[in-house]
Amino acid sequence: MTRRPRQDSGTTDVIERQDFTVLFDALAERGYRLVGPTVREGVVVYDDITSSAELPVGYVDEQEKGTYRLIPGAGQALFGCGMGPHTWKKYLFPPKLRLWGAECTNGTFALTSTPADPADAQPLALIGVRACELAAIAIQDRILMGGDAIDPHYKARREHLFIVAVNCVHPENTCFCASMNTGPRVASGFDLSLTEVIEPERHFFVVQSGSDAGAAVLASVPHHSATREEKDAADTLIAQAAEQMGRNVNTKGLKELLARSTESPHWDAIAARCLACGNCTMVCPTCFCMTVEDTTDLSGEHAERWRMWDSCFTTDFSYVIGGSVRPSVKSRYRQWLTHKFSTWIDQFGMSGCVGCGRCITWCPAEIDITEEVRALQAQSTAEGDGTGRKRKDAHA
Question: Which of these, 23, 40, 14, 21, lies nearest to 225 by C-alpha position?
């Protein structure tokens, strides 16, 4: 299914909390496999669900540098939690994909398996996609199917996707999507968008359809046109979320600053803390580095080729004959941060960071990408006028 944007201007409607589970039924009746946030082993993950009861109802979470804590029983919100370590990327760009398998018969290898055709698989409905994550999907769209080198596996999955987005009204301390212009309000790329509103005597969702498919599903769910008061209640929550972001990044001139900061001594300070574990790349919704590995069984008669996620933090990632191009932790962290905010723009015309804050939460060394950017900016200001020119009194 290719998403068709609505031809009209769309309307704003309301689904009452008691009718919300009908949305799940309507999607299931259309053959969608439902995936959404749910609680597993003390964290919110994205997994198969069948009803709204499996959402993290009443849970909130606390996130800080290297810290994640889930708190149950804090209310009745279905989407009151922020994002956990999982990203929707795993459903579109799987962490492990078998490209082919082969068997040796009478000294001749023949293919026995190729990747399952995603077009033949059950279509997915992603429920609870935040604005920053929608922006991340748009970035991966540009990378994996926007040019001449199209990933057929990603494209097939992407074209059979139904997205139920959620406007974020509970930002985390690690979030900075507002400063990256990727949230907290969803702008495009969704089939349905929701804003959860909880009042003392009422719990409802303000809904907008972003595609013909979304409008068709909404027609199957009890709803009514939103009043001005209901729209204002949703808009107020989103505006408050934008003001309550825990972090921010000043992107003005950042691309150029990073391009001329390759020899900054601050990279040494970061490298002294960084473990090069690759957590930041694994939880990032936009990172797309991968490797291909060939394996054989002990008999040597069966071989397989697998595509797997990789990380630019490993020495093997940049290995060429003679050694690794980036042998030091300093060079690998510099490559990652500079790519996100600078050279990614050269490649794809957009930033590689959407401000979700996952890399901050899940860094065991408590490295905060927003703090490191500010440190580089402060150093540049102290040494010059912000354009790379030295002030006459800089070393007076």
Answer: 14
Rg (CA), the chain: 23
Closest by alpha carbon to 246, among 173, 352, 183, 138?
Answer: 173
SS3 of residue 272 by DSSP: coil
Distance CA 358, CA 285 (A): 9
Contacts for 288-293 with beta carbons within 8 Å, 24 or more apart? 288/93, 288/140, 288/143, 288/144, 289/317, 291/317, 292/99
Nearest in space to 104 (alpha carbons), one of 302, 299, 295, 298: 302
What's the start-to-end Cα distance of the chain, in Å?
65
Residues near 78 by beta carbon (within 8 Å), at least 6 away in sequence: 20, 52, 55, 56, 57, 196
Neighbours of 357 (CB within 10 A): 29
Q: Region 97-102: what's the mean pLDDT?
A: 91
Give the DSSP letter of residue 227: P
> Residue 123's pLDDT is what?
92
Which pLDDT score, from 0 to 100, does residue 357 have?
Answer: 96
Q: Is the CB of residue 37 less than 8 Å from the CB of residue 81?
A: yes
Query: Average pLDDT for residues 147-173, to the nearest whole number?
Result: 92
Contact 311, 317 (CB under 8 A): yes
Helices marked H in the chain: 20-29, 89-92, 131-145, 152-158, 212-218, 228-243, 254-259, 266-271, 279-283, 329-338, 344-348, 358-361, 369-383
User: CB under 8 Å to 323, separation ≥6 — which residues?
Assistant: none
Question: Tokens 């540049």 identify what position?
Answer: 380
CA 64-69-72 angle, to 5 degrees, is 140
Output the six-digit token pair for 304. 């397989």
